[in-house]
């Protein structure tokens, strides 16, 4: 019996992109935040399914993180484990602004921060915080003033147990 050849091309899998923007409400939280940020970045780069990302330290104690994942499930495994899971509840007290946006795209090329800001404003949502700023309450998200970001790359052996 002849083998049937499909004329349909396989649809490429979509890359899941996640962005967070956090603003610390006081410089008092900066040392503990930076330590946990370092541990969280280590966790990201060692999580299976992480494709790449970048972080940006912006003005007024504001921090942006953009990550690309093979699929949403890989990001959720990262989000719900390790340092990230233990530090997430503290963000409610440490920050006066926090917002998140997710989307799917066809490739792992990361957009520039201007495009990310546009998505955060038009598609994102704010996080519940203990003491939000007026801008947070009005969902007024300022654009980043810096474009100097640090790239994140997956470790070659990112199958580490976290």
From TrEMBL:
Region of interest (Disordered), ranges: 132-162
ABM domain boundaries: 45-87
Membrane-traversing stretches: none
Highest rank taxon of the organism: Bacteria
Extent of Polar residues compositional bias: 132-150
InterPro entries: ABM_dom, Dimeric_a/b-barrel
Pfam families from the UniProt entry: ABM
Name by which UniProt lists this protein: ABM domain-containing protein
Natural source organism: uncultured Coleofasciculus sp
Taxonomic lineage from the root: Bacteria, Bacillati, Cyanobacteriota, Cyanophyceae, Coleofasciculales
């Amino acid at each position: 019996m002849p083998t049937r050849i499909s004329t349909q091309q396989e649809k490429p899998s979509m890359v899941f992109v996640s962005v967070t923007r956090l603003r610390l409400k006081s410089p008092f939280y900066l040392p503990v935040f930076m330590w946990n940020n370092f541990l969280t970045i280590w966790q990201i780069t060692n999580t299976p399914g992480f494709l790449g990302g970048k972080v940006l330290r912006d003005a007024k104690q504001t921090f942006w993180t953009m990550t690309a994942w093979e699929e949403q499930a890989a990001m959720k495994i990262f989000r719900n484990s390790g340092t990230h899971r233990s530090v997430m509840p503290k963000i409610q007290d440490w920050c006066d602004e926090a917002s998140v946006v997710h989307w799917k795209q066809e490739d792992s090329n990361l957009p520039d921060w201007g495009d990310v800001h546009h998505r955060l404003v038009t598609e994102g949502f704010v996080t519940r915080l203990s003491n939000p700023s007026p801008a947070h309450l009005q969902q007024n998200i300022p654009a980043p003033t810096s474009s100097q970001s640090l790239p994140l790359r997956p470790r070659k052996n990112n199958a580490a147990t976290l």
